[in-house]
Design brief:
Pfam families: ASL_C2 (PF14698), Lyase_1 (PF00206). By secondary structure, the chain is mostly helical. The protein is built from 19 helices and 6 strands. The protein folds into 3 domains: 93 residues, Fumarase C, Chain B, domain 1, CATH 1.10.275.10; 224 residues, Fumarase/aspartase (Central domain) (Fumarase C, Chain A, domain 2, Up-down Bundle); 87 residues, Orthogonal Bundle (Ribonucleotide Reductase Protein R1, domain 1). The mean pLDDT is 96. The protein binds arginine (ARG).
Length: 463
Amino acid sequence: MSHSTNQSWGGRFSEPTDAFVARFTASVDFDQRMARHDIQGSIAHATMLAQVGVLSDEERDAIINGLTEIEQEIAAGEFEWSVELEDVHMNIEARLTAKIGITGKKLHTGRSRNDQVATDIRLYMREAIDLVAEELARLRSGLIELAEREADTIMPGFTHLQTAQPVTFGHHLLAWHEMLARDHERLLDCRKRANVLPLGAAALAGTTYPIDRHLTAQLLGFDRPAENSLDAVSDRDFSIEFTAFASLLLMHLSRMSEELVLWTSTQFNFINLPDRFCTGSSIMPQKKNPDVPELVRGKSGRVYGHLIGLLTLMKSQPLAYNKDNQEDKEPLFDTFDTVMGCLRAFADMVPAIESKTESMREAARGGFSTATDLADYLVRKGVAFRDAHEIVGQSVAFGIEQHKDLSDMTLAELQQFSDIIDEDVFEVLTLEGSVAARNHIGGTAPDQVRAAAQRARDALKAL
Ligand code: ARG
């Protein structure tokens, strides 16, 4: 007779589990998040078992009806989770047996919690990926629209955070979009490897029952059964891949956040974020702080932490399943929650960004941002680029001394440095002339930005 409090594996035990150990080893507090997926997997498993004759049709129907009722109990918040029953799997199975009797005990035929939990996480993961992809697409399309609206807006482009050359704001926003487009691809790629069925691997070696894993895979919408039973129960690459995707995404969102924070400062004054995305200070009445981008920037840390945590969790595990794996869920769930929150905040906020075009323009006019244009002008007139560089360098030094931008100098002033300079120089020294001249694929010219936005929209639609 079993002395264990845990009926499902107590047979060989001669004393009950220590109360602390029971709590310490339990995962139900967090893995109940996969309850729906656990039930979905069990229904498919029972359906397959009946198909191959291991369960009768009546047994299958009793199991499916019982599980469907349990799913409703859980959704209604009426299900009583028990830590003594360790995890989501045994809580649901125990409830099923309480409801339908001995037939409930047949559900676990040809299955182990090891392939069961691996299946649950993959089902959860697939759904999570689809939700993230949807939110990412919403952010991307908001970004594309904003870029189109800002195709003609001129701002300084930076290297080393020093004014470099004028660019269009739309072009800058489409640079952000490129980062997200790559993240999106990575996410969908990770889905392919997540969408493989572990069930049938049982504890580690497979099962003696005449199971049909192709049928189970098909019932659950998996592309195929996992190839190797040992690998099937111990592989968590897909969780790491998702967290790696999330780390790159958060790194990108953090870079964007950093720019938003800079741009809303009095010193830059490039954009306004509507009040609803900001908060004030309890002491300084004038303050309006860009909390949303700051928080997103900060959230990157926890997601990177989860990536390192999961890699470390897996790195020393011998095949096949080990209890260590129970530690895979919290980082994964938190990564999902964090990503969804950050994407939602960004998708809501990005379309509401208001550019301060005059102020951006003024900033682009300062810092001699058209110096390269002047050098290119000289090259077109036959000067060697290195000589042109030197001539323009001298003009800039003069400008710094006189507090004059290149475009504010008279022709005579410019001609001090090269008599090749003519009236037509002023066309290239304007900001509009400078951006319009970079008129090739990938360049900052407004027409190129509009074309790139259209391509981005088409690519997004084609996903
Ligand atoms: N709660 C466990 C986990 O998350 C389920 C699998 C337990 N399997 C086992 N043989 N202890 O990994």
